[in-house]
């Protein structure tokens, strides 16, 4: 493994300074709006902190009690005296639910086999709603705080998510799929004990709908839906929906795919959208007359407030970049009637907390970003560009020949290292249902400071462009989306004469790791080195060994089962084409990864060894397993370990020199 002894002093200092920059994660507003809990690692370790929303006073609640990795979000208890968090073992994501009190006392609340994900806390504080894959698929469970009993509420074959209590605690809302259309997701409302579940039949079959928030009166639901391709927001009048149900013919049975029921249900929903961009609603504002949403545009996320009566929206006046809220799914964003808590970042500005006043359209910074020895000017800005791609680049395909796919506009971000000539690093995002954005990315800036210009490609299948764009990847992993990545790389090499076509590296983690493996065997002529981190190599083995809900909701959704599509599973596995590897490769994998088990890396290593590839610093392949780590980590010490591995490999294998900005920061 690389250490600081393997790197020059300036590079080692820069890497340590970057890895040590404190980061805010999962800001969460207390029930009365007076405090904000979040993860923060200013001490060098991830700890739970609480910030006074009025004075800005910051207090650390935990002392080594919470996970080192800040992946999973937080949730306040109803009385504001404790915060719930997720705890696992060494990053294995087999979460249990714990609570940390204001006095620093830690309590194990829910211990359950498999993975538990806390979704909501009832307003009276008596119950928790969480999902778990204890019995295989992700289903809904309720924890009674008084009796400490866990009750399973649902037993669906498909995953349940987006759980929330109604304000009075008598009902729950959630999302799942009971139709024959594998891609469909519907909104359900049931009694709090899981009885009498009702599919609200919103949108079209094959689209995806989910509940985001209950109205303050408990009679409305804020939902998201992508029936019209681009995600939109809707407000469901539950009383009106009841009337629609009563007017239906009692003698006619309907199921989840009933078109008539869906058409009738649409009369009880008011839809809100900007027809040009995807929008993701997050929650009602306290008055119940407005709701908050995020609008996606050109790799940015813009905060928007909708007036429910008029349907008018206004974009909030914040700097360009990425605005976000505290946690995935339903999220409280309001401190009070007119003040919102926003997290903001840009390619050159690190995450900070803002309080936005809707009455004045002004904001103030509640918690400033930390920069250590750096300044925003030391970080590279992102150029947004587009390229037309039919999924077939000019570079010859060595693994699988493809017919051209639909020609699409592919968005990308390019970070210029300032070096002339500059090596190019193609950094492929994971997911695959995700995207690269104009937000601060520590790995990207680290790579730029190593002298590499970085290209990030939002290939077909990425988010932010609508359902149809996402579905381009169905049954085509390792297909046109990989051609999009290579085409974008070819485009910038052709149009930027300051890029060095003899020093091109591909790097990615998770699905991006799969992409790094695939790019090096599919388009070996394009790359001079590759780095695959926590990536997939053998798709059938991944299907058999990943967590059960990932098996169904990821592998089966995109590829079917190995029994249904054995040829596709084999053809699109990098391990099938391992003999095509022609450039130095660094393989990195966490030993506790349960999403993409370390066996994926080990099987690929064995295949390469059997083909005669040499391993080691001077060989064809370098291999590192990371102890006490799962599917990546935000822990400063663990990030530094990965930074050192990447920088050492790039210095030796791609001939780069650290950029001037990094040298300047090291001198500071």
Could you please describe the fold and organization of this structure?
This protein has 668 residues and is an alpha+beta fold. The protein has 13 helices and 36 strands. The strands form 8 sheets. Strands 29-30-32-31-33-34-35-36 form an 8-stranded mixed β-sheet, with helices on both faces. α1 (9-19) packs antiparallel against α12, α1 crosses α13 and α8 runs antiparallel to α9 (548-559). It is globular, with a radius of gyration of 25 Å.
Low-confidence stretches: 661-668
Structural class: alpha+beta
- Count of alpha and pi helical runs: 13
Q: Determine the N-to-C terminus distance.
A: 28 Å
Largest sheet: 8 strands, mixed
Which range best describes the helical content: under 10%, 10-25%, 25-40%, 40-55%, 55-70% or over 70%?
10-25%
List keywords for this structure.
single chain; 668 residues; alpha+beta; eight-stranded mixed sheet; four-stranded antiparallel sheet; 13 helices; disordered C terminus
Fold topology:
Elements: H1 9-19, E1 24-29, E2 35-40, E3 47-52, E4 58-60, E5 75-76, E6 82-87, E7 96-101, E8 106-110, E9 116-121, E10 127-132, E11 139-144, E12 149-152, E13 161-165, E14 171-176, E15 186-191, E16 198-199, E17 209-214, E18 220-225, E19 232-237, H2 238-247, H3 259-265, E20 269-272, E21 279-284, E22 290-297, E23 300-307, E24 313-315, E25 322-324, E26 339-345, E27 352-357, E28 362-367, E29 382-389, E30 408-415, E31 422-428, H4 442-449, E32 453-458, H5 467-471, H6 480-495, E33 499-509, H7 511-522, E34 529-533, H8 539-545, H9 548-559, H10 566-571, E35 585-590, H11 599-610, E36 621-626, H12 636-654, H13 660-667
Parallel strand pairs: 31-32, 31-33, 33-34, 34-35, 35-36
Antiparallel strand pairs: 1-2, 2-3, 3-4, 5-6, 6-7, 7-8, 9-10, 10-11, 11-12, 13-14, 14-15, 15-16, 17-18, 18-19, 19-20, 21-22, 22-23, 23-24, 25-26, 26-27, 27-28, 29-30, 30-32
Helix pairs in contact: 1-12, 1-13, 8-9
